[in-house]
Amino acid sequence: MLEHEDSENFKCKTNCSKPFFPIFFYNWLLTIFFKKDQLPYKVSLENYTSIADVGHKKLDIQFVLKNFDSLKPVSLKTKGDYLGFTENNFWSSTTIVNTTNGELKYYFETARPITNIVELYVVNQQTGKIIKHISGDEKKFSQRSYPHRKCLFYLVIPPNSQLKLVLHVKSDGDVLKLPLILYSTEAFVNVNSTEQFVFGFFYGLLFFVAIVCFFLFISLKELTFLYYSLYVVSVGLLQFALDGYFYQYITPSGGWFSKHAVLLLAIVGAFILGRYSELFLQIKKNSERLYLVYKISYISFVALFLVTVFVPAALFYSYQIVNFLALIFFIIVLYSISYLLYSKKEVDILYVLGIFFLIIGFGVFILNNVGVIPNTFVTQNSSKIGTGLEVIFLSLSMANLIRKLKNEKEEFNRIALVKSEEMNELKSYFLSNISHELRTPLNVITNLVESASAEVKDKKTKKNCEVITYSAQSLLGSVNDILDFSKIEKNELRLEKKEFDVLNIFRNVRYNAKLKSKDKGLKFKFKKPELQSLVIIGDENRLFQILNNVLNNAIKFTTEGSVEFKVEIEMKSDNLASIKMIVSDTGVGIAKEKKDSLFDSFSQHSIDNKRKFGGLGLGLYIVKTLVDMQGGHIAIDSELGKGTVCTIILDYEIPEKKTVVAPVVTEAAVCDLGGKTILVVEDNAMNQMVIKMITKKWLNTVVIFANNGQEGLDAFAANRIDLVLMDLQMPVMDGYEATIAIRNGQVGEQNARIPIIAVTADVMESTKQRVAEIGMNHYLTKPINKEVLYQTIKQYV
Ligand code: ADP
Predict the structure, then answer these.
(1) For the chain, is the Cβ count within 10 Å smaller at the N or the C terminus?
(2) pLDDT digit string (tens) for 697-751?
(3) Using a 6 Å cutoff on CB, does residue 601 contact ligand 1?
(4) 638 C-alpha vs ligand 1 centroid, how far in Å?
(5) Residues 200, 202, 208, CA angle at the centre, nearest 5°?
(6) H helices within 221-282, ranges in order?
């Protein structure tokens, strides 16, 4: 029998451990006997196996059978089943004796699923017949003698026979392990069903987590989820490869990819875990240095990947390097966690637990791999258990991340809302402020030009003055539009309710429109109502503004032909009149598709004739708002190239006692204050000049100027004052403070009730209210209209 032939090495080994036993006795000890009534359920053959490392030598079975002892075999049990990282060929030999009269059937598990070459020669010692079984992932899966993911063989042991199991195994540099377990059919079924349950749960969990995280990435656009999903996929595939499923189901034809799958997936998995951890722990934000370390480790992984793919000779080292790099990488992640905890940065405890389980799982797996701890179901599957627990905890930490992102988003939205409100406020403030800033000098220009025009005789200069006045007024119109727009935006536009003769308004509107039409060479027709006068209750300025706007548009957008203004009044009842105002022109018209945006603010966005005709695009928006506020109706009918008809219908209340309203005086009559003294408290020199210019034509009027509230108060000491025109925003002491001081009797009880008129550029509703609250008698807005100023002052003195 071959077993009885000695080899030097074998002798030495056996002599070392059992010096006095005869060799045949020891070989007899290495033989496993299957006895009736003692048939093993599952047995490890490690203790009955000797193994020879033949290096890179390619031997055949006949040679090995003849010269096995000269190959210097050693007892496998002395090293456990661990053969280390190796590319060498190993030959092992085990003898089985079936002492029973029956045929025995066993499943023989040999090397790890990912071993490259596994060949089992079953030598019948009595007949000398040799049967070759093959497995390993170098060949096609279909060529396996027994189609199983593990390197497993089906053994039939004839009755009263002695079999020699000679195993040839070879790896490509990865760890080589030989569990060498014989399973009875029952044991095999049991192990398989347990594994299938555990694996099904494990892979199912990974699949589920990967899909969910991928969807979360799609919806939240957060890269951490993508990396986590990819990590779960790669770690799942790595386990899949380690278990032999990758080869069985994905690369059943074997080949290069099949052989390298574990290595490549390990590199990819470690790389993605790195990226994921880096993003999750916000390394870039938290530490530039650590971020650099991560970057270096990525470069190492990429380099290793490339070397594995392109340098076949380096494969042997790649297995060891990837283990080493993975270890280093775990240390980097652990260091990052400790660093963040030490620097009091927030680290999710669930993430820490996840990584902890991963490290424990792989730690045990590696220790088992290198033979430090024994083979059990738990140690063999520790990486899977670790990964499973890791995935569960990391998924929980991802749930935390979602919550964090949601909170961050809510906070972001809140800040954005506050900011946008602030911006809106600022915009409104800016708009009204800039309009005031423009209105003041514009006012000065118009007033100055007006008085200059009155003084000069030269026709050409007079004409130039008219042009300046016209331009300044049109600029003032635009500025007023912006002011109105900002009031509408802030919901501060209010309508007045006063009695006025609407026919006066029509006359004034017609007068202006006629002049402008004439300037443009257009015909202007006015179809007035039959009534000569109709006193109604409403906001006369706003009606004027509406009609002016619509008529100005008609004139502006008409280059030839005519503009017509028609008014129809229908008495709905004794106290309600419906006024229909129709403005039609023969101008450019409006394209159908643009009609919808006519009443939008800044409608020049959508209507492209802007540059040709100019304008802010606010007119119709304001008109529509004003009409709506009065419960009226506006419609624009237009045909491109033919003209436009704008119809406005407004209902007005008619006062019970019809007062006769005098026609609006266009040219002021003589202004005479009968010797009254007015104190003007105003810091702006331009505004002072405007008031000076207006009041210098008034008879019997004394005007005193003060540059701020304090100077205003001081002025009372030396003068008898009848009325105060008070600006609001001033240095040293503002108009509010000064008014309060006056009302509190600081300038004498006799002056405490003196009429104070606020003259301000601020048209905000809140200002108007505050002015009334502190006891001012009236509120005038700049630019000052000279008639209005005179009428108002006259009312109080
Ligand atoms: P603006 O006149 O400052 O441009 P509006 O709000 O008054 O702004 O008008 C909005 C747009 O509607 C104008 O730019 C113009 O294109 C169109 N539009 C208004 N009235 C007429 C009209 N009578 N004829 C032709 N287009 C008009």
Answers:
(1) N
(2) 888 899 999 999 999 999 999 899 999 999 998 989 999 999 999 999 999 999 9
(3) no
(4) 11
(5) 95
(6) 223-242, 245, 256-280
